[in-house]
Amino acid sequence: MTRTRTLAALGAALAVALVPACAAERPPAERGGWNETGEVTYWMWDATQLPAYQQCADDFEARNPEIDIAIEQVGWDDYWGRMLTGFVANAAPDVFVNHTSKYGDYTARGLIEPLDELVARDGPDLSQFVEGTGDLWVGDDGKRYGLPKDFDAVGIFYNAGMAAEAGITPEQMQNLTWNPQDGGTYEDVLARLSVDVNGVRGDEPGFDPRNVATYGLGISYPPGGGSGQTQWSMYTATLGWSHTDKPLWGTHFHYDDPRFQDTIAWWRSLIDKGYMPPVEQAVGNEPAQLMQAGRVALVTEGSWNIATFAKLGGIELATAATPIGPQGYRAAMTNSLADSISAGSPNKGAAWKWVRYLASPECQSVVAQGGVVVPAIASVVPAAEARIAESGLDITPFTRHLREGTAFPFPAAQHAADVDEIMGTALERVMAGSADPSSFTAANDEVNALFTQG
């Protein structure tokens, strides 16, 4: 066991010690902390969404003067560590923005409140949410632990000026094809967009892959952990590959599958060809920064970053859908954040009122007008798409996956932190060239062992 996992296990054990084992088993009326007045603390990590949620809080307080909402924004890198510390010290927020990759650990330890009885009593109508977003928040115990607040998908951001200079049309960008053998027209475009220091393109004689001025594809580092959400999952899914034996809460992983290993081998080959920067150039550099500096021409990223890309100055950007794979369809991983209630909250009645409001058309309409993300209520989606379009970037290449049925869910699973650590290490070694993709078979055995240990 590595030191990281040892510390994680220690923190989890401390958290367990502070939460009554039977707390989540009793109905709300029999559990303490159901005050419906007072202050509700609310944590979130995305600073770009803070103004919209502060407006929601102001509107909520006007309707519920007996409740005060105290919002604290903590960046993603510190958010989960502070959350763990809060649970251990019995000082977790009453309500917090939760992530699919995290909440399985919380449900297993009784740290967040199941909402089924509350939803059945008070609503909301779960059919109002974009299809599939609500399902992500039903744990492996069959209980609901969050109400969806948004949804996302993966697509392509590309430098439209560079594409035009290379003779690549918008129509070509919207209809790319891919396969793990030769990369299809997708790799053709990446080669064409790659330019060495002498001005030679990647599809021209004399291209120097060791001295590249602009790479066709930017790499997000670390290279994806167990999910590969924005890095490689949009390729593997077009081969019919899936992370686990079930869409959600699977217990047997498939990183030993040749389809996965062939995909990563192709992805790694882009570095050798000079179409994607080597790992050492990508570490510490965000894809958006590399695009603005002219170092990369195209990146695969999540729709939640559209506001960041829209604000890049000095370049003309456009969006495109992920490439169509060998089986004739494109794919994109989708996820939905949700608001959860801490089981140890002394103010769960007021917290529940706030969570219901966060999942209401009133609040999500405010969020839609913020132009940062697409809210999870289906009726609000068109307004969000229109508002985001005002930034100059079209989000429909991302959201089309929901309409066309080509989206697949983030692979929620128990032991998610350990899976990410094992696969993150394995991927880093392969992408750095120090291990062969066949090494994923041993990593997969280690992952699956997590689910067979007593």
From TrEMBL:
Annotated compartments: Cell envelope
Signal peptide range: 1-23
GO terms under cellular component: cell envelope
Keyword Ion transport (UniProt): no
Pfam family, one: SBP_bac_8
Keyword terms of this UniProt record: Signal, Transport
Family from the record: Belongs to the bacterial solute-binding protein 1 family.
Name of this chain's protein: Carbohydrate ABC transporter substrate-binding protein (CUT1 family)
Provenance organism: Pseudonocardia kunmingensis
